[in-house]
Amino acid sequence: MSGEDNASLQRDEVEALAAIYGDDWCVVDADHHIYCIQITDGQDKPQWTVCIQVILPENYPSEAPPEYQLNAPWLRGEERLQLEAALADLYCENIGESIIYLWTEKIREMLQNKISSSDEVDLEALRQVTISTETDHGDDDFDPELVEISSTVSEHGTENGSDCECPAIAHGECVTDRRSTFQPHLAPVFHRSQVKMVLDKLCENKKIANATHNILAYRIVQRHPQKSPIVIQGCEDDGETHAGSRMLHLLQILDVENVMVVVSRWYGGIHLGPDRFKHINNCTRTILDQSDYIKDKEEKKGPKAKSSAEKKKR
Fold this sequence. Notes:
Radius of gyration: 22 Å
Oligomer: single chain
Strand content: 15-25%
Shape: elongated
Number of helices: 9
Order of helices and strands: HEEEEHHEEEEHHEEHEHHH
């Protein structure tokens, strides 16, 4: 089969999928044939959801399958392996045919089976939350308008009443490397309940909801008179292993307080290796700096050290 035949079949398949899935279908990057489908268990209020991102190579469907990534925080370990094996078997049974619709409905069938088997997963347990006393951490070609860029947050909010309101969210600029795109988002948070509020608010944006990964880290410092500060902090990899813990470590090193950062990544089909962590951390640091969360080194040292530093300059 020629490349033109494959291209024609791909166009027909994309049109059909867009018609079938409507708002659940998302074109991530038409030029590079990257698409995403949100799949739910079919309930009015879905309990289980998976996003599958597919990249159509030039020789699909005649010679090769689509590349894909499954995005769901709860889909891990043996359950993920079983689903991936089922998708591989389905492809082998239909080599040379359009496969995305069959894959999508197979995933939906798995989600519906989870309901019937009454399996329950505590999603909150996936948040790697730790509570501790304060310690000294030492000194240690994609559409760029994915999300409208808003002005950064200059006022970090107030603690009173903030637990029942979703904080204002700032969106940083996109960074693109080998067709993968990264974008940071930041919000002031004073209570753990606001972390979910911010994430839910971000996911109201279709592009963000369909990102391959939405990696997050937050750090809340509660100060009390005559008591040691309490640090409430946590992170979530969202499928990008170790990325959330690296972001949290950066927040600790920078000693930032009462802030949450989410970095969305749209995978472009080319593995970046360790560079992906560099982009995630750089995005995190940049939006923290733009939003005035990074303290001046001289300010952190105190007035005496600052005075000493000024004398040296003279």
